[in-house]
Amino acid sequence: MTFNNYIDGRWVPSRGGAVFENRNPADQTDLIGTFQESTPEDAADAVAAASRAYASWRLVPAPKRAEILFRAAALIAARKEEFARDMTREMGKVLEETRGDVQEAIDMTYFMAGEGRRLYGQTVPSELRNKFAMSVRQPVGVCAVITPWNFPMAIPSWKIIPALVCGNTVVFKPATLTPLSAVNFVGVLEEAGVPPGVVNLVTGGADVGTALTTHPDVSVVSFTGSTAVGRLVNQNAASAFKKVHLEMGGKNVVMIMDDAQLELAVDGCLWGGFGTTGQRCTAASRVVVHEQVYEDFVEAFVERTRALRVGNGLDPGVQMGPSVSDAQVATVGRYVEIGRQEGARLLTGGRRLCDGAYARGFFHEPTIFGDVQPAMAVAQEEIFGPVVSVMRCRSLDEAIAIGNGVTYGLSASIYTRDVNKAFTAMRDMYTGIFYVNAPTIGAEVHLPFGGTKATGNGHREAGVAALDVFSEWKSIYVDFSGRLQRAQIDTE
Questions:
Q1: Residue 169 belongs to some domain of the structure
Q2: 37 & 123 share domain
Q3: DSSP 449
Q4: What is the pLDDT of residues 435-462, one digit of tens each?
Q5: Which of 368, 430, 372, 378 is nearest to 405 (CA)?
Q6: What local confidence, expressed as pLDDT, does residue 488 receive?
Q7: Mean per-residue pLDDT over the chain, rounded
Q8: What's the pLDDT at 332?
Q9: Exposure string (b/e) for 149-182, b if CB count within 10 Å is 16 or more?
Q10: I need a labelling partner for 135 at 20 to 30 A (CA). Which of 5, 33, 320, 490 fits?
């Protein structure tokens, strides 16, 4: 089946006529569909449609915009299983996880629809008589939304839904590895009643992204992906002073203290390290363990990891699916070799799985390195695969120093039964997200999501913080004194 772009309320092919295939990473014989290999001209058409639609959409009362989004959330909920199965086929993570991905889109859409009646500003007393002072949010314009493949419905919802409720219009470029989930999401918005041109979908590669980030009529660029590409996005948008939101990489740490509940810590590290095959920006790819419990933890962690069942995410009982592509599984293999060369001790895994049914997909064993030194590449660089580096520490202070000793600052966690240690770590870890007695994954839609340092550029997704990306503040003064009053001068 061939799927089209969605521009100005119509499903249309690319001007260039080229298409690309979307295949199941667990079974490359499974062709999911063909999608438009769009051109910069297609991107320009989508921006033009969004620009035209903005003139009227921004004037639709926010509660009315929200009613459309409430309908969209209900439609996604009704089709949750269908969308989850499509997602597992196109990006590989197990069905239980793709159901969670779709649920996150449902949750975000309901949450942001509620903000349609809560786009609060402030009213404040003026310093002058007979003068009223307040602030309001105003929409920004056309938003370019560029999303990754690992959460192909959740992440678009984090961006598109708050953009819409604020009164903006959207051009959406999804990852080329997961276009079907994008089509499903936009199709729901169309069915819910989003007017033509308000949301536009253009599939394709880097040329489309560059066209969007440099287009003079795009006011906001929201990007989730690698730090290297995020830097290019920022550079492309900088000359026109576009508002840019970047959500990029992570090298997240779990700190396990000597008083931790080890069984719980092992559960968390399994889920944090190997959930989504390690293909999360919040994945727990580093584990720092107090030397007094290091051996006990490692023994249990390795035993549980060896028991994980790897396979097609649609198969019942499978706990870890494939990497999303051949290139991604090759990256995992390259880092495994780097870890060996650096002197890290391979505790389990380390091989690409190629036999039998595995031969048709991109599978790699869940892998653990022990006795890792904090400066090693496997402990510093984002691998985005099922590889966890385990390190020793002698104290909480050392664990925190190791945790902060990377270029990223997205998520961190601590396992301890000591409230003082927990609060010390909460204060001293320089990350955007922190967990106590839980892994580094599991964010909820009503709190801000994002990180520090090379993870982001200061903006946040989710929660009411997302509204700040997609709106601007306007301060308004109404003087009803009937005479000139000069602030800071006429103070009597």
A1: yes
A2: yes
A3: B
A4: 999 999 999 999 999 999 999 999 999 9
A5: 430
A6: 87
A7: 97
A8: 97
A9: bbbbbbbbbbbbbbbbbbbbbbbbbbbbbbbbbb
A10: 490
Side-chain-side CA neighbours of residue 378 (13 Å):
31
Q: Which domain holds residue 185?
A: 2-248+456-476
Q: Are residues 242 and 110 in the same domain?
A: yes
* Under 8 Å between Cβ of 385 and 363: no
Alpha-helix runs per DSSP H in 20-94: 40-57, 62-78, 80-91
Residues 227 and 342 placed together within one structural domain of the fold? no
Where in the sequence numbering do the catalytic residues fall? 247, 281
Do 202 and 340 fall into the same domain? no
pLDDT of residue 445: 96
What are 387's strand-pairing partners?
367
The one-letter code for the residue type at 405 is G
Residues 372 and 385 in one domain: yes
Distance CA 319, CA 267 (A): 13
Integer CA distances (angstroms), 390 to 275, 367, 399, in order:
17, 11, 12
Q: How many residues does the chain have?
A: 492
In this structure, is residue 364 part of a structural domain? Answer: yes
Residue 489: inside a domain: no
Strands 199-201 and 169-173 come out as parallel
Domains held by the chain: number: 2
Show the DSSP H helices in 225-261 as ranges. 227-238
Whether residue 426 sits in one domain with residue 368: yes
Looking at the DSSP assignment, which residues form a beta bridge with residue 12?
A: 5
Domain with residue 353: its CATH number is 3.40.309.10
- Cα–chain-centroid distance for residue 33? 24
Check whether residue 321 and residue 345 sit in a common domain: yes
**Sign, Cα dihedral of 158, 5, 174, 230:** negative
CB 97 within 8 A of CB 276: yes
In a domain, 447, yes or no: no
